[in-house]
């Protein structure tokens, strides 16, 4: 049997229609695509650690069978929460293992069955004489496989794949092994030969063979750090094609005709100065210069404005808007929530009052007549700045002369939503703002077609927020502290993870609001804000809080984004261990916005999971958004950090932007250099397209070719 790259996976041995469907769905329809699916880890199964030689605290791979009597038992059997216990022996000793949610193992972990177990071995906390593995990775191994000379399971460095739907790592290993053994065709290489030579990269064929089934003598540490020449090449390649797509898209944008704004005229400079209620920070000034330079060019700006919560992005956006409006164009500002849109609308009205610009609000919660008049004013051009939510793209909003699109809190919107708004103008300038401080390297991968401006300085007069971690038993003292702060004229937020009580046994905003208002703060004005209130109710509550008619605001994460009440200086977050790090940071950003000292109190038990503990400790240790983002990335990995909505675009198979940032930089330099030479770049794209349709799609090369 001979196999070539274009063979559909469904004809492979070991792949029936069901598995073929899974592979196709995961973007691996052909043999070529399947070979691009690489292991995420390697196990040294040439020599297993005998149980007797295990060193507690270290990661080991052992080969052992389930003991008689000590065979699998389920304890604490409550549905999915069941813990499965089993013991194993290998001739040198016995080892205990515990599996959380392990009820399903009852069927397979029978006496005498052999398994490879991989994981950290610790001393059993309940029985200090006993060693145990908690949630090891396991694979069952038949007797015949150990004996076979070309076993894929043992006697070699074994690749471990991320399971795909119902296809386990072991099945994938078998399928890929069979392919590689019967593979006698050439594997074409789309990387330019100069690059192969410059970095002494192996060919794609050699790199793939090696990365799937490395030779016995390779260092397992090198493999697991993904720095063997084969892996380096494959990682570089993924970044390179992706960056090439970005570079080509960028050069196309630069050809596209945009609106060259006048920015240097005295009249315009004066108009910009006049709207400023305070002296801008030097970071704000620098960023405005970068934006103005873009606006002046005859092709559309695509700029990401990054700055920590409270760093003052909005006023910079309004300065840019002033330039655009003075040139006779309209500006639209889209925000992810109605609260935030309303707030931007109010500040725009305030800031642009003297300038006399027409400001309109378009959100779904308004009356038909209010909406109709806003729409009419956008279309006639009477409205110069239009603020809204995604209602802006859902409604038939027509602009007379749209010059710039501003998208706030970009991470809440998908790329397509941004695009639909942009299409309402003729190549308008685009400014996206985010308070998620993305480390530079990641900004380049994820938003590589955007230019980056960073506000890395806080407005003056801020006192740093003091954050502490208290337990629930300390709440009475916390409430007492809150009363004192409010007696001094300050205001406070109390945040809960859920709106209503549920099975999860979490305190809920609505119930706690009742209790706090009645029993804890009977003399104070307490308000409630959550996502299920009607829009006008939400607006009314926010307005009352802004005017200090509400002193204590009980809320859910609806307040996470953008809400700006400088007099609020206390935030209490209950069940703080239930929130993500980025979310806690965003929440905390609601305080510390004025000159008064602010305090954030995180309520959570002292005994919590390692990750939750790391999150809360980070919050206590720093309020620097960039540090927090780096920590968060390490804790969660980039996929979750950004949410699938955006990360889905940059689906790398082996490359990991954080781990491989040097290769990312290198690939970006090479790709942008190649894009300078359109003929050569087109050659690479064509070669890539002939290799695989899936790749084309993955890197969006079809749209730029
Ligand atoms: P971001 O959107 O970046 O989170 P905002 O634009 O909402 O931050 O600004 C936060 C607060 O700081 C606002 O109350 C704003 O008026 C104020 N502010 C912004 N820039 C300055 C400055 N240069 N000097 C004083 N206050 C400022
Ligand atoms: Mg903001």
Please describe what this structure looks like.
By secondary structure, this protein is an alpha/beta fold. It is 39% helix and 16% strand. It folds into 4 domains: 9-42 and 161-225, no CATH class; 47-154, Beta Barrel (OB fold (Dihydrolipoamide Acetyltransferase, E2P)); 266-455, Rossmann fold (3-Layer(aba) Sandwich); 465-622, 3-Layer(aba) Sandwich (Rossmann fold). Helix 6 packs across helix 8 (229-255), helix 9 packs antiparallel against helix 11 and helix 10 (282-296) packs parallel to helix 11. It has a 7-stranded parallel beta sheet with strand order 12-13-11-14-15-10-16, sandwiched between helices. A hairpin with a 4-residue loop joins strand 4 (83-89) and strand 5. The structure holds adenosine-5'-diphosphate and magnesium ion. Magnesium ion binds next to helix 11. The site of adenosine-5'-diphosphate has 18 residues, from helix 11.
Indicate how many domains the architecture comprises: 4
| Basic shape | globular
**How many alpha or pi helices?**
26
Largest sheet: 7 strands, parallel
What would you say the CATH architecture of the largest domain is?
3-Layer(aba) Sandwich
Within the CATH hierarchy, at the fold level, what is the topology of the largest domain?
Answer: Rossmann fold
Distinct ligand kinds: adenosine-5'-diphosphate, magnesium ion
Spell out the CATH superfamily of the largest domain: P-loop containing nucleotide triphosphate hydrolases
End-to-end separation:
36 Å
What is the helical fraction, as a range of percent?
Answer: 25-40%
Q: Order of strands in the sheet with the most strands? A: 12-13-11-14-15-10-16
Class from secondary-structure proportions:
alpha/beta
CATH class of the largest domain: Alpha Beta
Gyration radius, to the nearest Å? 29 Å
């Amino acid at each position: 049997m001979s196999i070539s790259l274009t063979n559909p996976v469904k004809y492979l041995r070991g792949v029936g229609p069901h598995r073929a469907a899974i592979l196709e769905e995961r973007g691996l329809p052909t043999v070529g695509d399947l070979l691009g699916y690489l292991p995420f880890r390697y196990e040294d199964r040439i020599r297993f650690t005998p149980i007797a030689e295990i060193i507690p605290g270290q990661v080991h791979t052992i080969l052992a069978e389930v003991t008689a009597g000590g065979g699998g038992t389920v304890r604490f059997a409550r549905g999915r929460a069941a813990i499965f216990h089993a013991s194993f022996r290998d001739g040198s000793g016995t080892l205990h293992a515990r599996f959380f949610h392990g009820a399903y193992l009852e069927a397979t972990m029978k006496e005498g069955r052999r398994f490879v177990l991989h994981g950290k071995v610790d001393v059993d906390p309940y029985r200090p004489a006993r060693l145990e593995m908690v949630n090891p990775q396991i694979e069952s191994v038949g007797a015949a496989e150990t004996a076979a000379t070309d076993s894929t399971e043992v006697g070699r460095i074994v690749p471990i794949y991320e399971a795909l739907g119902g296809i386990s790592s072991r099945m994938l290993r078998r399928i890929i092994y069979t392919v590689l053994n019967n593979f006698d065709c050439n594997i074409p290489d789309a990387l330019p030969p100069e690059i192969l030579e410059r970095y002494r990269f192996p060919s794609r064929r050699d790199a793939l063979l090696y990365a799937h089934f490395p030779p016995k003598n390779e260092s397992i540490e090198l493999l697991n750090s993904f720095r063997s020449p084969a892996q380096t090449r494959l990682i570089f390649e993924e970044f390179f094609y992706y960056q090439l797509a970005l570079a080509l898209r960028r050069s196309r944008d630069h050809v596209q005709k945009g609106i060259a704004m006048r920015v240097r005229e005295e009249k315009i400079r004066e108009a910009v100065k006049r709207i400023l209620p305070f002296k801008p920070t030097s970071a704000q000034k620098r960023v405005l210069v970068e934006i103005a330079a873009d606006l002046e060019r005859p092709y559309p700006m695509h700029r990401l404005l990054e700055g920590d919560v409270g760093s003052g992005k909005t006023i910079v956006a309004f300065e840019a808007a002033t330039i655009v409006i003075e040139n006779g164009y309209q500006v639209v500002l889209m925000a992810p929530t109605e609260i935030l849109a309303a707030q931007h609308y109010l500040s725009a009205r305030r800031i642009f009052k003297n300038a006399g610009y027409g400001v309109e609000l378009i959100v779904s919660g308004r009356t038909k007549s209010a909406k109709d008049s806003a729409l009419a004013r956008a279309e006639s051009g009477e409205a110069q700045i239009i603020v809204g939510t995604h209602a802006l793209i859902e409604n038939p909003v027509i602009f007379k002369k749209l010059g710039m699109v501003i998208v706030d809190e970009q991470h809440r919107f998908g790329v397509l939503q941004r695009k639909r708004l942009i299409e309402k103008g003729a190549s308008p300038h685009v400014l996206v703002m985010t308070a998620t401080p993305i480390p530079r390297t990641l900004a380049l991968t994820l938003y590589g077609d955007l230019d980056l401006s960073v506000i890395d300085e806080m407005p003056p007069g801020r006192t740093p927020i003091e954050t502490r971690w208290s337990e629930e038993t300390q709440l009475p003292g916390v409430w007492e502290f809150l009363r004192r702060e409010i007696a001094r004229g300050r205001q406070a937020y109390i945040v809960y993870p859920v709106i209503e009580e549920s099975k999860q046994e979490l305190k809920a905003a609505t119930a706690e609001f009742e209790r706090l208002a009645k029993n804890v703060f009977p003399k104070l004005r307490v308000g409630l804000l959550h996502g299920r209130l009607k829009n006008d109710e939400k607006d009314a509550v926010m307005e009352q809080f802004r005017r200090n008619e509400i002193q204590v605001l009980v809320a859910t994460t609806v307040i996470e984004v953008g809400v700006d009440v400088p007099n609020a200086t206390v935030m209490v977050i209950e069940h703080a261990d239930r929130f993500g790090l980025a979310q806690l940071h965003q929440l905390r950003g609601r305080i510390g916005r004025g000159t008064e000292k602010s305090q954030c109190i995180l309520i959570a038990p002292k005994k919590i999971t390692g990750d939750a503990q790391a999150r809360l400790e980070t919050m206590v240790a720093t309020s620097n958004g960039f540090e927090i983002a780096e920590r968060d990335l390490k804790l969660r990995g980039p996929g979750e950090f950004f949410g699938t909505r955006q990360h889905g675009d940059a689906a790398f198979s082996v490359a990991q932007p954080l781990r491989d940032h040097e290769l990312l930089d290198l690939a970006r330099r090479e790709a942008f250099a190649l894009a300078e030479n359109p003929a050569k770049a087109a050659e690479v794209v064509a070669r890539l397209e002939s290799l695989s349709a899936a790749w084309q799609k993955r890197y969006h090369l079809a749209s730029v070719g």
